[in-house]
Amino acid sequence: FFFKQKTAYEIKECDWSSDVCSSDLDAYLDAWKDFRAQGAVADLNVRQAASMATQRAIPWNGTLAGTFETRVSLGQPNLVTNASLAITPAPGGDPLTGHLDVAYDQTRGTVELGSSSLATSATRIEMDGTLGRTLRVRARTTRLADVLPALEFAQNGPVELPLKLNNGSVS
Length: 171
Known about the structure:
elongated; 13 strands; two-stranded antiparallel ribbon; mainly beta
């Protein structure tokens, strides 16, 4: 990271970049205890971002860009993070587009999705709600193979679907 200006209580106008993405960040540490940061991220490759959560390769590729904010009291389990990210197609793999509106609250143990969507050339998924509680998902596909990597990620292993699509009809 390269910080243009830094004091004991505030880190402002932090610009950093790497092979993975570029970002603008404003970060603050109040009373040496309460940390908060907000900023924007651009050019974050979906495959590289997914590799932070799983070792499985994903077939889709896109670029994430958007805003985020986070806050936590150091030494306390109260991290809160919000992000609003657009996904645009990237070369290599099946192009992925969409929007993710996500909020994580460590104290409540929740991951909430606002109105979010993901789409490939053959599949569109719209979702909102709280993971592990009430999650509303609407999915349309003409290629079930698009769904398998997501199911394998959720199941933490290989999945075989008991149905097939033939010209848009289930068999």
